[in-house]
Amino acid sequence: MPVVIALIFIGVVSFVPEPQRQRLNALLIAGAGGIYISGGGFGLWELAFAAVMVAVAWAGLRSWTFIGIGWLLHTAWDILHHRRGTPLIPSLHDSSFGCAICDPVIALWCFAGGRSPKELILRVRSRRFRSRRSTSEQSGSHPATGQGSVRTRSAFGWPGGPGRSRPRRGAGSGSGRPRGAV
User: Fold this and answer.
1) How far does the chain reach from its first CA to its final CA, in angstroms?
2) For 116-153, how does the pLDDT look when each residue is reduced to its tens digit (9 = 90+)?
């Protein structure tokens, strides 16, 4: 169930447009750092942890990576509270344990850039296409059909194959003559 909760959270927050989505998540990390202050079992360490989370949230305003780090820090804090017997929700003994399962899923999403599910799917598809395309170019076949030949490039990236190390003078001018020729 905690993984489902994380996926629902990701789905709902994905409707918030960027850059507000990143700002919202940074704000949530700051709040998550103070969630145990009122009933936590670690005394003043709760305040120190909250201060660390505010600093991470501040950095998260510019970087999704810091938001992911914040969720992982909160995961560690959840585990410590679960082991100590001071759960997030006092009436639910395993609430901190459930939170410790939920938070890393959200952290992975943040490490992926906090993209919406649609953006993540499009990114994966484009990577697959690029990897198939580079494989077919290496084999000398057409990317769509897998047959025939693909234009080759020299070692310097110029079109024309291994024998061409640079473009001809005047290439592209349309006249076929070197530049400056009358």
Assistant:
1) 78
2) 888 878 878 887 777 666 655 555 555 555 555 555 55
